[in-house]
TrEMBL record:
InterPro entries given in the database record: AAA+_ATPase (IPR003593), AAA_N_dom (IPR025753), At3g28540-like_C (IPR058017), ATPase_AAA_core (IPR003959), ATPase_AAA_CS (IPR003960), Mitochondrial_chaperone_BCS1 (IPR050747), P-loop_NTPase (IPR027417)
SMART domains: AAA
Record GO biological process: response to stress
Cofactor section: Mg(2+)
Record keyword Magnesium present: yes
Biased composition, class Basic and acidic residues, residue ranges: 308-330, 455-479
Protein name as annotated: Probable mitochondrial chaperone BCS1-B isoform X3
Domain AAA+ ATPase stretches: 233-387
UniProt family annotation: Belongs to the AAA ATPase family. BCS1 subfamily.
Taxonomic placement: Eukaryota, Viridiplantae, Streptophyta, Embryophyta, Tracheophyta
Residues covered by region (Disordered): 305-330, 455-497
One MF annotation (Gene Ontology) recorded for this entry: ATP binding
Taxonomy, superkingdom: Eukaryota
Keywords recorded for this protein, A-Z: ATP-binding, Hydrolase, Magnesium, Nucleotide-binding
Amino acid sequence: MKTVDMFTQSGPVIVSVMFLWAMFKQYCPHQLLNYFEKHSKRVFTFFYPFIQITFNEFTGDRFMRSEAYSAIENYLGSSSSMQAKRLKADVVKNGTQSLVLSMDDFEEVTDEFQGVKLRWASGKHLSKTQSFSFYPVTDERMYYTLTFHKRHRNLILGTYLSHVLKEGDAIKMKNRQRKLYTNSGSYWRHVVFEHPASFDTIAMEAEKKKEIMDDLITFSQAEEFYARIGRAWKRGYLLYGPPGTGKSTMIAAMANLLNYDIYDLELTSVKDNTELRKLLIETTSRSVIVIEDIDCSLDLTGQRKKKKEEQGRGDEKDPKLKVPKEETDSKQSQVTLSGLLNFIDGLWSACKGERLVVFTTNFLEKLDPALIRKGRMDKHIELSYCSFEAFKVLAKNYLQLETHDLYAKIQELVGETKMTPAEVAEHLMPKTLPGDNKVCLEGLIAGLEKAKEDARLKAEEEAREKGSSPEENAKEQGKENGWCDNGNTEMNCKEKE
Ligand SMILES: Nc1ncnc2c1ncn2[C@@H]1O[C@H](COP(=O)(O)OP(=O)(O)OP(=O)(O)O)[C@@H](O)[C@H]1O
Ligand SMILES: [Mg+2]
């Protein structure tokens, strides 16, 4: 589309009209002048080819900053720093401190959208408020005005303004300081969230890592999809595996990837389902709601089964319609599985914005199948003992090593032992600075050999007690813990069989 510089083209016309009006005022009879003055505004508006929109900093309620104003402020940030001569600076902390620039009062910048030029200007209303104070208080109210030619009315009022608001909100989300919330009883407290974990540093098979990242990114961009299919914009993840395999680290990496806040929900300190509901309703959009060690947080299985027996009806048929029995019985009762399931399924259908719900557990088999069925926990992710591929990620992070003569030995031992990434990482920590890579790798080999020997002795001892062979006993032991020989869960082993 041809770009039209409307301001340059229309300038001489406006100047001529104003000159004629001044001449007319000088020589015109009094009554006629009055008449013209009365109608001059209307005439001027008729000929004035531009439309002007004002966006005030405060809405009707003087204490509420207008969302549109702050979105525009963010949107204009980059063009302001390029074009305006006078700028205002503010510091934003998001991991590191960074400067955010916006245009100063009574500055102007131009913007271009689909070939149409527009002009943004900043202004300020000053008024003196009535006050009993010795010094008069000055009330400042900022505003932005947008000016554009009236022939672009539809484009600007429709597409352009929603583009500005969307872009402005996205910039605001990027610059904001993220928070880690924890609950103490029914109140959330927060600290600044600055965890360094990222998917680059997570030790895991590259293919699996990519699949998780793709899933997260697809979810975060799927607002229209969820609206179209009539589902709440939420996704449940269940992270399971032995202690020290990176479940908590992965949650931090997920939040960092999507730029989300984290709500770490401590269920044991929540008194009842009413408190749980309050806490969950208070969570904001673009957040990860985490319930760690779900199997330890509640006697989930027992309470659910007991409740089922008492009520004699299926709990999970339509959880949205039911009021948890505990809420009606007693305010002192504990959080129950049915309460938790109700909220996961139903509550956020009424809340705007996207949320991830992440459960972690060391014992998958202890969880009630109703809690982890697809739809509630959409994606089950196993974090397991350190594989050779995972070791290579750790070695790259900790030692900046791509390969080494000792890798072959490590590959062999890692395949035969169950060592968590946390333990492997501990061996790779340099003992002196600068570290000696060979010393670290030899330390790891010694650790792996010891773990292998310990496992062999343990299996022998248990076999002696049971009167079976060490190999059979090791297999039995794996099944009891829910883990197979190679560190995979029983469920996974079955899938593989
Ligand atoms: N897969 C991994 N990738 C990178 N680092 C890891 C990984 N697993 C564990 N670690 C390291 O080990 C430490 C402990 O890991 P983390 O707390 O994430 O384990 P977890 O699975 O949550 O354990 P738990 O079940 O006891 O809560 C982390 O600080 C991290 O540095
Ligand atoms: Mg953890």
